[in-house]
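User: I'm putting together a teaching handout on how multi-component assemblies are represented. Below are the sequence lines for each component of a complex, exactly as they appear in our records. Could you produce the 3D structure of the whole assembly as structure tokens, so the students can see both representations side by side? Please keep the chain order the same as the input.
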Amino acid sequence: MPFTIPKERWTAQVQTTTIGAPEADGGTRTSTVTVGGEQTLPFLHFEGETPNPPVIAIEVLDEAPTGWPEPLLKHYQEVLGDPAAWAQKAVAEFGADMICLRLVSANPDGTNASADDCAETIQSVLKAVGVPLIIWGCGDDDKDNEIMPFCSQAAAGERCVLGSATQDNYKTICASALADGHLIVNESPLDINIQKQVNILVTDMGMDLNDIIMYQITGALGYGVEYAYSILERTRLAALGGDKMLQMPMLSIVGSEAWRVKEAWQSEEEAPEWGPLDKRGIMWEVATASLFLHAGTDILVMWHPEAVARLHDLIAELIASPQA
Amino acid sequence: MFVIGERINGMFDDVKRAIQEHDPAPIQELARRQVAGGANALDINVGPASKDKLGTMQWLVEVSQEAVDVPLCLDTTNAEVMRAGLEACEGNAIINSTTGEEERMAAILPLAAEFNCPLIGLTIDAEGVPRDADGRMEIALRLVSACMEQGISISDLYIDAVILPVNALQQVPQEVLMTIRMCKALSDPPPNTIIGLSNVSQGTVYRELLNRTCLVMALANGLDAAIVDPLDDKLMEAAIAAEVLLNRNIYCDDFIKAYRK
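Assistant: Of course. Below is the structure of the complete assembly, with chains in the same order as your input.
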């Protein structure tokens, strides 16, 4: 008896969003990134199209990180503390589709860099690379509200993604994005209801639905990632079912989450049964990233070059798998 | 819930007057307001008083589609008027309606097949509206079979279990609710279910309260679509809340606003 694959009939699709502005659109980007547009769950080509493959942003910190394990450190050693060089290396050598620049130096508990310093960093990174940028604050609401208007202005017209708007803190970043022609990341603490609410709050301020990327704070493999998967999948199901307020492309932060867990960094002396340290973190990042890919993530923010290469291969393979 | 706005109907005085005066403005205003209120499609009914039903149907279709870009639900029992409306429609249309009578199905179903559009089937036959859910289901089954024979996708069939005024026939609403539930077991995929809501409150005092309560109950029983007055905010908000409670829409604090965006 012939077997017919049952097909789901979706009524809607994910929004298509382009990040980065080339010269013709008033920016200076030499490449742009288009994500979204999926008509079905990830890679089910027999049901609908996935017109834009997921992309990888490599994360660049604006100051040298502390506590990075050797397998990660060795790839970035000579560029730490120089975000422009770091970004350049990430694009030229590691094939990053985008750069996610995180302004950790602004943190008032750390270096406490000024808004001008951050703006200068952004300009240097914009000059160093032609790919689109995600610009993320330091995570301290008050400080981010102080620096973001300057950071946004420093990249005016480039159609960057500014991170991040939350339910309790969205007005400043939203106003900046609107003023300077950027997109924003709407962040939620692994809660689909709050994600939807943040999306409504920013659209109330005038943000276009096409200028929003959704981000759920997740964890890594082994640390409750199943729940994250289910939230991302449910969001995607709602999008395909026609919920306009959840149809934006999704972003997942993988690098910092994967390398935070002890399995990724604990030494071989401490944990000999876990195998070689120089493989573990990479595997953790690859496993976590591929899981989010299957949940529907459009933008992966990653760290390790080998993990990035594996994911690029995986994405190419999944996109090329038989179309019906 | 798929919302079909009921207001463009010659039964209403403002529409009747616009038809008589051949004035498109009030029709187009109603079309726009209903879509803004949440209508996914607009019912078009020339009303009982219209003399040139065919011409009026065409005119209503033409002026409505100038104003809005949603499917038009052509509401007539006359196959010729239906064809005229379908031919005038530039976008998607919905046929409203056939009954389960052989004669009516023979006249209307071929139009659904020819124009490839969804179809509303009333659970009425030569003997009228059945007393209970079982009688309604018999006719629903007849409609499903007839559609299958004509090659009409069952996902395009909307079964209307015919709600009647509660002040006259108080036992009917529960039979309708039961029919809505039972329809989902008729076929795979099952037909959609729909009600012409305002009928339930004809001639009663608290019309809006009865309408919205009935709608929420029907939604809880699995209703897919309804012909309603989308200008009734409380009705629309009750439906939106019901769909959140039924987990058909994702909750957020501003869920009303989210639905309306």
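A couple of points students might notice: Residues 38-317 of chain A form a domain with the TIM Barrel fold (CATH 3.20.20.20). The mean pLDDT of chain A is 96.
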